Amino acid sequence: MSLPSNLPINPDRLWASLAAMAEIGATAKGGSCRLALSDEDKAGRDLFVSWCEAAGCTVTVDRVGNIFARRPGSDPSLPPVVMGSHLDTQPTGGRFDGVFGVLAGLEVIRSLNDRGLATRHPVEVAVWTNEEGSRFSPPMMGSGVATGVFTLDEILDKIAQDGARLGDELVRTGYAGDAPVEHPMHAYLEAHIEQGPVLEVEEKEIGVVTGAQGQRWYEVTVTGVEAHAGPTPMRLRRDALVASARMVTAVQALGLETPGDACTTVGILDVHPHSRNVIPGRVFFTVDLRHPDAATLAGMDRRFRDAVAAIADEAGVTAEVADFWEFPPTPFDATLVKRVRDAAAGFGFSHRDIVSGAGHDAVYVAGKVPTAMVFIPCEDGISHNEVENIAPADGARGAAVLFEALVATAGAA
Amino acid sequence: MSLPSNLPINPDRLWASLAAMAEIGATAKGGSCRLALSDEDKAGRDLFVSWCEAAGCTVTVDRVGNIFARRPGSDPSLPPVVMGSHLDTQPTGGRFDGVFGVLAGLEVIRSLNDRGLATRHPVEVAVWTNEEGSRFSPPMMGSGVATGVFTLDEILDKIAQDGARLGDELVRTGYAGDAPVEHPMHAYLEAHIEQGPVLEVEEKEIGVVTGAQGQRWYEVTVTGVEAHAGPTPMRLRRDALVASARMVTAVQALGLETPGDACTTVGILDVHPHSRNVIPGRVFFTVDLRHPDAATLAGMDRRFRDAVAAIADEAGVTAEVADFWEFPPTPFDATLVKRVRDAAAGFGFSHRDIVSGAGHDAVYVAGKVPTAMVFIPCEDGISHNEVENIAPADGARGAAVLFEALVATAGAA
């Protein structure tokens, strides 16, 4: 569908800003590399700050480097409605992951200026520090500190793979701010590329994100008996890989059979001793189970453990299942979600409710502040890749929906 | 069963020699480390040569370092009946793999001397250079050169992982002999530990080896689509690991369902990109199919390829199957095999026919010369490991069977 002519935002300006930001840390294959608090990340932040100041915003930086660019509201006593995302990228990242949410937020502020629209609540665009977790682990650091998931001190002492200390890199890049990390917010709205194929496959223009999947991550160690591949008859083997292969199949079946957006993945699998003619004695693999409903996720946990135990018994091997990480399902704020859905419908954009399978700053923020997200399609569902791409019209639609939801939440003055 | 008192060999002398050899390169956990043409291998060879000379043998060394210790026969025009195996070990090898066959051969010669028995054919014990292939690749070098599988020149130029050239190490250790690598033999008999669990599990004292399994080795690359584990619904995935897991299961089923000593193994499996929350886009794995019958092995090859193609189709991935290595089934000489069986029966030893699943020098030699092997049980079927062990009585039984088969083949003078 072609774009309506009456959008409240400026599609060309948004696209030009995305293109200008992509020049910083541009990679050979058309992506971007702005690792958190690198020289490139600093240059991207500086460009963003200059744009915000040109748009009349007041910029503050907190002690973990999160940036907040504020357009005043008519009632200075009210907390801001915050839009945002992140500007850091994966090492071979794309031009839109995170960046789109930040620059769509800036486009909303620029459009409010164009139209001379005042809001009751202040309006802000946030840039959260180190969402990707590539240079410094864990991911979603800035939003995690702002919402109390991590303490400031533990994060400042994180050491990058290149040996740099996060606190020192904040100082070096000029983003060791003095604002407290607890930042009052009335509501939070994050626009983001879907990073998956659903909207494109179903030909939907907007994803109305109703919440984030709960995640349970495990590490499984299967121990059999290492032996020569030649002289050991099949019936006498205790092959850790054969047993693990059945477990991988069972994990997939769990995802296929559980209703309602279940996702199940084995992403790492290591075989020991890793020799062509030795029956594997030990296999390590990871399991990632996701579902938006807590009770269903708990049921998946039980079925997964039961399946692993049954397969191990039958194969004559042992299997240890260790909990690695857990994140509860995070429903977003029903009122804000409805505003996103209403905005999409108001423009006549095709849309569907969708659950976020990936982690986003919004997922941490949702633990403290009413939150919603707007998804736009991305080409072939590909993200974290230099070929990551969106259609300019989809970006414009996402920014327009963000504009409407923001105005409805910040209130016309 | 306890040992008969009338064995033709001396069990205590055999055991003492095995223990003395194990002192050279002894490891902390009770194994041996004598990497091919290392200082330890040289010391082991020197000890063996000194024992042979003390037993009245003439020792010759060929140009690839194979050692032949000869006890003359009554007819000097006849080629020798050769016993033997290897003295080199894995880095954390055991005390019996290879060593048993060499020292059982020496024990046979010592026992012929004790009894003043003359044979028509000369009798020899061979030590083949670098059977293990740990320091220099490929394995079974010495027997391979002697039988024309490899050329002398290509092997002399092999470089070890530590940078040493094989030809130079032969000179350094004093085993660059001048005998031609084509060594005339009337027959070849190799005693060896089973390196598998069959004899122990079935409580057999002797394995009558009827031949060696044919082997076909493959490399399989499965290519799907790498994607985020969260935002990619199960039904839209092309998960290379899920498909590969089904292939691993199919490879195992092929081994279980094919009659007659089929062995099928996946020993290496590598997942890309190897991240907890990324659906694997590519998996590499190896396949090792073995069967003693050529037609059956060819049928396994077809069923394997068909299964991989069908699973790939169903999973929406591609799978490339590359041939990596092939070794045809090697039946041993029926007359010699019968002599081994008759010898075991004559002593009243429990025994069974068995196919060698592992590679041995005898498998190369069998391509040129009538060959048979005698297997003895090893504890828990474990080999290539410092805990490798045998019962002294099983060693004595194996040497006794070797003695009888040798005398029957070399002929009483």
From TrEMBL, chains A, B:
InterPro entries: Amidase_Cbmase, Bact_exopeptidase_dim_dom, Peptidase_M20, Peptidase_M20_dimer. Its cofactor is Zn(2+). Zn(2+) 1 binds at residues 86, 97, 192. Residues 211-313 form the Peptidase M20 dimerisation domain. Keywords: Hydrolase, Metal-binding, Zinc. It comes from the Bacteria. It holds the Pfam family Peptidase_M20. Binds 2 Zn(2+) ions per subunit. GO terms for molecular function: hydrolase activity, acting on carbon-nitrogen (but not peptide) bonds, in linear amidines; metal ion binding. The keyword Lipid metabolism does not apply. Zn(2+) 2 binds at residues 97, 132, 384. Belongs to the peptidase M20 family. This is Zn-dependent hydrolase. It comes from Azospirillum doebereinerae.
